[in-house]
Specification:
The protein is an alpha+beta fold and 198 residues long. It is 31% helix and 22% strand. The strands form two sheets. The chain has a seven-stranded mixed β-sheet with strand order 2-1-5-4-3-8-9. Strands 6-7 form a two-stranded antiparallel ribbon.
Length: 198
């Protein structure tokens, strides 16, 4: 089942932000901002730290777009704290500053429909949530497949462009490229321009 077009499932849970535990964290705190909410399977694993650091490295790019990055796994908040104290060179996530939610009871993963029930961990789900808390994009990878932060930014740019201009973004669109009006004539004009460019 897709959550696209629906209100993001609400929750209240513990989260770690800048080495501090917050007991009552909620997505609704970011109403009015875009949110990139991503799940990863477990702390102290292998692909996971590469993804968390990749989001941290591009954090300023998300912030420029009025977007908040939030991670989530089924680990405890104390496990998050321990992982945050471990250096990157040893597989830790020291230096990550965005919130990391604890889904210890697995209700958040289950409500976002990314829980791998047989292992009790979340698939690599990513949800782009708009300023009204509506899910506008979701991607779910199997456990061994890391995500592209560049693609998350590209899709965020596309959503913002659409909201500001009313034009839709074709395949492989990037910020600064031509978009098109969502009409038959708009499609014809787009392909005509593409042929001229070639």
């Amino acid at each position: 089942m897709s959550l696209v077009g629906k209100k993001a499932p609400e929750f209240r849970a513990k989260a770690v932000i800048n080495d501090k535990i917050f007991d009552d964290f909620s997505l609704s705190e970011y109403n009015g901002k875009y949110v990139i909410f991503f799940f990863y399977p477990l702390n102290f694993t292998f692909v996971c730290p590469t993804e968390l650091h990749a989001f941290q490295e591009r954090l300023k790019d998300f912030e420029k777009r009025n977007a908040q990055v939030i991670g989530c796994s089924v680990d405890s908040s104390f496990s998050h704290l321990a992982w945050l104290s471990m250096p990157k060179a040893k597989g830790g996530i020291q230096g990550v500053t965005y919130p990391i939610v604890s889904d210890l009871n697995k209700n958040i993963s289950r409500n976002f429909e990314v829980l791998k029930e047989d292992e009790g961990v979340a698939y690599r789900g990513l949800f782009m949530i708009d300023r009204d808390e509506i899910v506008r994009h979701q991607l779910v990878n199997d456990l061994p497949l890391g995500r592209s932060v560049d693609e998350a930014l590209r899709l965020l740019d596309a959503l913002i462009f659409y909201e500001q201009n009313g034009e839709v973004c074709p395949a492989n669109w990037k910020a600064g490229a031509k978009a098109m009006k969502p009409t038959e004539q708009g499609l014809a004009d787009f392909f005509s321009r593409s042929e001229i460019i070639k």
